[in-house]
Amino acid sequence: MTDQERPVTDDDLHAYVDGVLDAGRRPAVERHLAQHPEAAARVAGWQAVGASLREATAWKAREPVPARLDIARLLEARRARRWQPARVAASILIALAVGAGSGWVARGPHMPTGVAAVAMEAASVHRMFASADGSAAPYDAGAKAELASWLSRELGHPATPPDLSRAGYRLVSGRLVATDLGPACMYLYEGPHGLRITLFMRPMEKRNMNAPMRPMHGAETVGYVWARNGLGFGLVTSEPMETLRGLANEIRDQMSAQI
Q1: Which of 19, 106, 132, 139 is positioned for an S-S bond with 147, CB 3.0–4.6 A?
Q2: What CATH number belongs to 114-258?
Q3: E strand residue ranges, 119-205
Q4: Is the full-model pTM beyond 0.90?
Q5: Which residue ranges make up each domain of the chain?
């Protein structure tokens, strides 16, 4: 059985995400992802975890290397002493840091583009962050002006969070997220009975710069996706909502006034 005939396994998918998949095996994996949306969604989720880990640990990479970790001193110490458990632990830490370096949505030739890609990314971001404690985000709703200014600057587009208070939704948190096309942002809102919705925004990749609103349906999420003046939007939740289209219309109107 050739590589092209062998069934795609989770090991193949993980190798694809980590960028270590054999070149001869890659076409079969990419065909599998194109034919199985649920597998593509899982891969996007794994990649989102990697992006989140990189975001959470980026500050450490910017610190100067301590003198005790100087390469010359380490080599000298290695020659002088036997391998010890502490060094094994250090090696594991380095391996984990390297393994977390894969991209978020590593698109092959058959992966979604345009607003379809925005829909997939919005669903992944919602699954990653909607169930988390809002206080864990880099900024919270109490710093709304600072949050909006920071995210707008990173996106290169106005990104002030829409006011959904009349519909009973309060802003819980917001954060910058990574995609393979550059920075994106998400705002998390909480409504009656604790229901959470996520608004995802990112610049478009010169495709679908203006796209009409359309519904999106995934295995675990529902919502609406559209684009206006080069900025893509995805409004996502985990449960069907009769009021979701109205919320999407309200967000589109408020954001259109900004951009």
Answers
A1: 139
A2: 3.30.200.100
A3: 139-140, 170-179, 182-190, 196-203
A4: no
A5: 1-110, 114-258
